[in-house]
Input
Amino acid sequence: MTEHLSEQEIAASQTPLNRLREVLGQVLFGQELLLDMTLTGLLARGHILLEGLPGLGKTELVKALGQALGLDARRIQFTPDLLPGDITGNPMLQERNGTREFVFQRGPIFANLVLADEINRASPKTQSALLEAMAERRVSSMGMRHELPDPFFVLATQNPIELEGTYPLPEAQLDRFLFKLNIKAAGADVLERIVLKRRLGDELETPAVMDIDGWRTLTDRVQRVYLPVVVANYIARLVHATHPGQSQAAARVKFGASPRAAIGLAAAVRARALLQGRINASFEDVQATAVAVLQHRLVLDYHARLEGDTGEGVVNALLAEISTQGAPLPATLKEPTA
Amino acid sequence: MLHMNEIDFTDDSEGRKDATPEGASSRLACTYWRRMARALARRVNLGWLTLHMVPLAAFGGMALALGLLPARKWALLPGWLGLAAFPLWLLLAAVIAALRARRHFIGETQALARLDASCHLHNRLSAAMQGVGDWPPPPDPPPPKPRWNPVRTMLPMLASLAALLLAAFLPLKAATPVAELPPVRELSAWTAVDASLELLREQASVEKEALEQVGEQLDALRAQPRENWYRPGSMEASDHLREQVGQAARDLQQALNTASTALATAASTPLAAHERDALLEQLGQALDALQQGMLPLDTETLAALKEMACQEGLKNIDPAALKQLLEQLREQGKCLGECASRCRAPGSGTPSEPNGQGLGEGQVGLAAAEGDDASGGVSRDKAGNTPMTFRPPQAPIQAGSPEALANRDLRQAVLGETTGVSTDQHEIDRDAWTGTQPGGGAAAHTGQGGEAVWRLPVMPHERSLLKAYFD
Output
């Protein structure tokens, strides 16, 4: 049985994590919540889909993360003519000692941190090349399996406004992203800071906060964060309620979230608990991460899409509908007022 | 409310003792939170119990009140007994409610989770309960508890209690028992027929099988439901049976008289040949009448009469045997006369008129001349129109005689009825065919540029959605 985290380990984890937040905060101004969610997703060993307009700092964030964590980061620009082999690598015919043989040339996916920029511009065939890599962290070519480096994260971006010439990500691939984060535009005060601190064409240098081993230690500690039974029960009820007919909020949901979503949500709440300096996960962690974990896994029906309903709205309605407690209070009692 | 100074923290939940200040503080917190959780669980479980019990108790109280009112009115129960039954019903309702509410009961773990949520403790209590981390210090002020909802708890109970008190002590006028209605009396015709049959059985002057058949007819009339006894059909059938029995008794009595007179005449005086032949013929007719009809003479008497009539043309009749036979015939005749008088309808003549042609035989004195439709008199059980009129009889309505009818109103026609026959033909334009049309698969109309070649059928709500979307 896994030993639970001690208060000392939690305290020891807070120093590098706070330093990491501070460093990343120097790269992305006014996006503390996005940074926290990104770190939470990475601590949970999940892949993240970033959705936002161009110029909001998605690429900078990934580059900064790679430098701060001491990870090997690569960027792949997805285009319609990109082929799967361009990502995973190709077998090349080479001659050695008078004999010819295929030698696998690794593609850009063999990195710790891969930025799949504008992933929805590639064809479904190319998008599906990421499926095996994201789920099993390896690449198969000509019957040979090639393990990807550990840790391995995919941070994909997509632009929500330019839909011409794009291919929506298939549900199976969306399910492999632990988080989908919507990047919001910054306010005027943040823009003022950006204008004062940045110049066009500047290349940011982010100091390394930890190495790969330090990061692995943190991700191992995430696995040891205690998940109370009541919290697990809340996760299960929440994910179950995403299916049509199981809740009012899911009335217009065509297909609900998968068990993989429940597992992902449990990992996310553990990671958030560590990031928040707690040895156990809580209801609040579930409520904070549920939208990021579930919104892209819900398939809404025709009416919902026409009326502008979104997965985020459905998950928020679910959070309001599903109580943290397994059983409601009887009608003979009233909830206590604070 | 639980206070810190009320807590005994000498030992924790696992029975260990820790003398350090930190250990004492932790035990104190553990005891505090677990007591709070148990108290919360008790309150929530009591809430569930109350939720299931209140409707049972309220409806039971109302039902008891409703039952108590007639019970008091009829003096079946005193009011205090209904009040005394209410606590017993409450006890039973509590048991039923506990069985039904049991699945909603929460334990200490769920109560700790509630405290976690209400105190925003990030599930530290749930974790500490499993030995992960320390118990958080008791808060000040203490966490709030769920409050009782008086509308759902006390209001129904008070309403049912008020109804019960009202039913128990409301002044009521005692009801007087309704006198029992007399039983339905049998028809007089049945009594008369029954008495006649009994008399004939005792006298043994009529064949038993015939008596049994009459008895079966009487039983069939009696077997009807009581409410049908005095229906016109039943009364008419009963009267008819009585008349039949009376008439049969009179016929038999008359035939007996004829036979006994003939025998007595033949035995007493010397007769000429033609007189003897006439007597023999008269006797033969009487014997035929005795063995026919609804009530035939019993076999033994009939055989004795036949034997007597066959002795050399009534010449050598034993006087002693004849005397004995005549005595027997007299007795039987007397019995049959009694039966005939019993079966005479009330007001249908005097016993001295054997044919019963007196006033009242289905007639009323005033309307005796118009007697066809006067089948029910004031002294008779029969139904019918009393002919209280001096007008001449009207033409019969010919009821029962079938007539052919023609249906002129076609709206009332039934299925299968022929409503009309026509020899018209369909108007067909036989010059409409202009030549061979394009074969299958050929486009009859290729359309022009810009024309819609297919349509997407959408439902009205989908159309409005699409319109709203593209607007």
About this structure: The mean pLDDT of chain A is 89. The longest helix of chain A spans residues 7-25. The two ends of chain A are 39 Å apart (CA to CA). Chain A has two domains: 12-219, 225-326.
